UniProtKB/TrEMBL annotation, chain A:
Its EC number is 2.7.8.7. Signal peptide: none annotated. Keywords: Transferase. This is holo-[acyl-carrier-protein] synthase. One of its GO terms (biological process) is lysine biosynthetic process via aminoadipic acid. One of its GO terms (cellular component) is cytosol. Residues 13-112 form the 4'-phosphopantetheinyl transferase N-terminal domain. One of its GO terms (molecular function) is magnesium ion binding. InterPro entries: 4-PPantetheinyl_Trfase_dom, 4-PPantetheinyl_Trfase_dom_sf, AASDHPPT_N, P-Pant_transferase_sf. It comes from Lithocarpus litseifolius. Pfam families: AASDHPPT_N (PF22624), ACPS (PF01648). Residues 116-224 form the 4'-phosphopantetheinyl transferase domain.
TrEMBL record, chain B:
NCBIfam families: acyl_carrier, PRK00982.1-2. Keywords: Chloroplast, Fatty acid biosynthesis, Fatty acid metabolism, Lipid biosynthesis, Lipid metabolism, Phosphopantetheine, Phosphoprotein, Plastid, Transit peptide. This is Acyl carrier protein. It comes from Lithocarpus litseifolius. It is found in: Plastid, Chloroplast. SUPFAM superfamilies: ACP-like. It comes from the Eukaryota. Carrier of the growing fatty acid chain in fatty acid biosynthesis. GO terms for cellular component: chloroplast. InterPro entries: ACP, ACP-like_sf, ACP_chloroplastic, PKS_PP-bd, PP-bd_ACP, Ppantetheine_attach_site. Belongs to the acyl carrier protein (ACP) family.
């Protein structure tokens, strides 16, 4: 099952495609995905959207071995992407993935059994507000414990960083369950020891079937991973899953799988993968 | 960033990450169905609803151009789009690249600018700038 756990990240600041390069990368994707990418107004958003899709198709192709032109990826009503293929990933009880992008990074995470949610934030200093004014906009999303932790951090920098870290975790949770919006995020309270051993209490209940991790990606970016029980998925996302009922033993196998580090990939590599070329990444066990 | 006119810290607002702006709403409008939108916390007190929703929030009462323009300006400011960028009533929030933090700030900016409070349910059906403007005028009327 470990083979289903993946974390890939792309630094898109390193990809500066000419219009031709961009089009040719875009043409690797099925038509409905191309239209989706093209509707973004800003080039940066188009780049992120394109790389996000390249990651999805490349991951499914590499990990599940499905021929590229047989891969169908759709989105739920709330916008969460999922793999449509019925017979895919038979070796995994419930293969699912999630993508995120922010700033310089686009990333994907997959799990063989548990739900996975991924979110990236970057430490952006609010341009026209003080830190306190900025975070006040979002106060209703935090429990009083979390809010106290945030505002009692020693410095403005510290406060902003704490805010982003909590926000990142909350987003990972929302994205794991495939919710289009989250009602009552102030009741989803995160506990941690210096941002390790991260756990969650929902409506005051300790929810041990969830695990969370926070990574520093570099350049002031963080990524969070949420791992949870498939039955926590919203209805529209649960319908896309292969399985949502697992006995305790099975579930714990999935829950306690090692959480791997993020592996850096380049856009050029992803394009090679989708062209069906083997690409050897030094130090990557898959190619050993 | 959003308007900073001494926002009251007590503005109540429902949790709203970007997703419904970025993905759900465009497809929502096509299907006409309200998505199961509330997080599954395993509690029976939260209800799941699936019922047909009119494709447009209001068929007959489109917002005044001034309102649309105000919304465009708030959005442009929040997303740091250049003044000459094309943001119109037709513009979809998702396509303009609003992320979860942007979305919250845009809605708060609209609430402040127009002195209204946007309910979660109504916010769900906003896909374009025009939709936001229409909703704003409806809420102003109600006041």
């Amino acid at each position: 099952m470990e083979k289903g756990v993946h974390r890939w990240v792309v630094d898109i600041s390193k990809w500066d495609p000419s219009p031709n390069d961009f089009c040719s990368a875009l043409s690797l994707l099925p038509q409905h995905q191309r239209s989706f990418v093209k509707r973004f107004v800003r080039m940066e958003d188009r780049k992120q959207a394109l790389v996000s899709r390249l990651l999805q198709y490349a991951l499914v192709h590499e990990v599940l071995g499905i021929p590229f032109d047989e891969i169908t990826i759709n989105r739920t009503l709330e916008g969460k992407p999922y793999l449509e293929n019925d017979n895919a990933g038979l070796e995994f009880p419930n293969f699912n993935f999630n993508v995120s992008h922010h700033g310089d990074y686009v990333a994907i995470a997959s799990e063989p059994l548990c739900l996975v949610g991924l979110d990236i934030v970057s430490y952006d200093i609010p341009p026209k507000e003080t830190v306190l004014e900025f975070i006040q906009n979002f106060s209703s999303y935090f429990s009083s414990l979390e809010w106290d932790n945030i505002v009692n951090t020693g410095s403005c920098d510290g406060i902003l960083a704490e805010f982003y870290r909590y926000w990142c975790l909350k987003e990972a949770y929302v994205k794991a369950i495939g919710s289009g919006l989250a009602y009552g995020l102030d009741k989803v309270e995160f506990h941690h020891t210096k941002w390790t051993n991260i756990s969650v209490e929902i409506y005051g209940e300790d929810r041990r079937e969830w695990r969370f991790w926070l990574f520093e990606l570099g350049k002031g970016h963080w990524a969070s991973i949420a791992r949870g029980h498939p039955r926590s998925a919203t209805e529209s996302y649960r319908k896309t899953l292969k399985g949502s009922e697992f006995n305790l033993e099975e579930y714990h196998k999935g829950l306690n799988l090692p959480n791997v580090d993020f592996v850096s990939r380049t856009v050029e590599e992803l394009i090679s993968v989708l062209h069906g070329e083997a690409y050897n990444i030094p130090g990557d066990e898959r190619n050993a | 960033m959003a308007a900073t006119t001494g926002a009251s810290p007590l503005i109540s607002m429902h949790s709203r990450p970007s997703h419904f702006f970025q993905h759900g709403l465009a497809t929502l409008r096509v299907s006409g169905l309200k998505p199961v939108s509330l997080s599954y916390y395993g509690r029976s007190s939260l209800s799941f609803r699936m019922r047909p929703l009119p494709v447009r929030l209001q068929v007959s009462c489109a917002a005044k151009p001034e309102t649309v323009e105000k919304v465009c300006n708030i959005v442009k400011k929040q997303l740091a789009l250049p003044d000459d960028s094309t943001v119109t009533g037709e513009s979809k929030f998702a396509a303009l690249g609003a992320d979860s933090l942007d979305t919250v700030e845009i809605v708060m900016g609209l609430e402040e600018e127009f002195g209204i409070s946007v309910e979660e349910e109504s916010a769900q059906s906003i896909a374009t700038v025009q939709d936001a403007a229409d909703l704003i005028e409806k809420l102003i009327e109600k006041k």
